[in-house]
Amino acid sequence: MLSLLSGHWLVLTLITVFLYGIAEGLCKQFIGDITPPRFCLYSVPIAAVVYLGFYLMHDHPPPLDPEGRQFLFFAVLASLMESTSAVLYFEALSGGPVSIVGPITAAAPVVTVVSARFILDEILTPAQYAGIVLVIAACIGIAHAHSDPERSGESGSGKRGTSRLWFLQSVLAMCGWGMGATLTKYAYQLPRANEANFMLYWGFAVAITLGGYGVLREREWKFPAREIALAAAPLVMFSTGSLLLILAYKWGPASLVTTLLAGSIPIMLVYAFFIIGERLTRIQWLCITLVFIGMILCSGPE
């Protein structure tokens, strides 16, 4: 299967964009019924099936291969940063409006572009840099356009009126995802780097961070079938998208892959508009268009 996917980082990234966008909308839709700790607990078995399944289906060197110690270290570090950011994202989403939390976390390319320039020596074309700036600016515009207190308070858990902790959590998630992307690409450049082992490490990180968070924070240990069904759909999308994303980082520039992920925001916003009932302003619709224009620029020849 890897031979068919080899080099097609753009296709892998665009599929991930769609999966993430729908999953973010589903999470916001159901987060009022399912607490973030329970979401994280449910993510562990789903991640185990997705990542361990990939690991068992593909050839790989020993996971603790002495010759691959550097790869092991940076792959695990990147995985922990990404999964910890997911915990912060779930918490932020439970306290803040999806139309602001999403754009903030989508600004991860800022961190990736800067760190990739110094760590990976990534140099892009002027058009691609212009696309990155356009995408980031459009995401900021989406967030600022959602400044009406009445409108931004339509969704969420009600904590928004007394705490802005969700904003800090969103920023930390953005930084973790941005730097994690750079380290993921860096890990692939090290000796004995292997996709299957990366998936194994990623699954381990999910169990430690998301699973640990769920165990520490959850107080109710009854799991209704309806709740499991509601959580399953977005979590399967997140896990599948993450798997494709890890592969995309192997073949594509970290700066571009991370920037293109911002395309999930327009998908999420459209979902929120039609399904959840969140209202969007003209400026937000304009920014959605600018995100897609920026994505087209980013996808140009390297």
Could you characterize what this model shows?
- With 302 residues, this protein is mostly helical.
- It contains 14 helices and no strands.
- The longest helix has 27 residues.
Fold blueprint:
Blueprint: H1 2-5, H2 9-30, H3 36-57, H4 69-95, H5 98-105, H6 109-119, H7 126-145, H8 149-152, H9 165-188, H10 195-217, H11 225-251, H12 254-260, H13 264-276, H14 282-298
Helix pairs in contact: 2-11, 2-13, 3-4, 3-10, 3-11, 4-9, 4-10, 5-7, 5-9, 5-13, 6-9, 6-12, 7-12, 7-14
TL;DR?
This protein is 76% helix and 0% strand.
What would the keywords be for this entry?
302 residues, mainly alpha, 76% helix, globular
Strand content bin: under 5%
Main beta-sheet annotation: none
N→C terminal distance: 25 Å
Q: N-to-C SSE series?
A: HHHHHHHHHHHHHH
Low-confidence stretches: 147-162
The secondary structure category is mainly alpha
Shape: globular
Number of strands: 0
Radius of gyration: 18 Å
Task: Give average pLDDT, whole number.
Answer: 85
- Number of helical stretches of at least 4 residues: 14
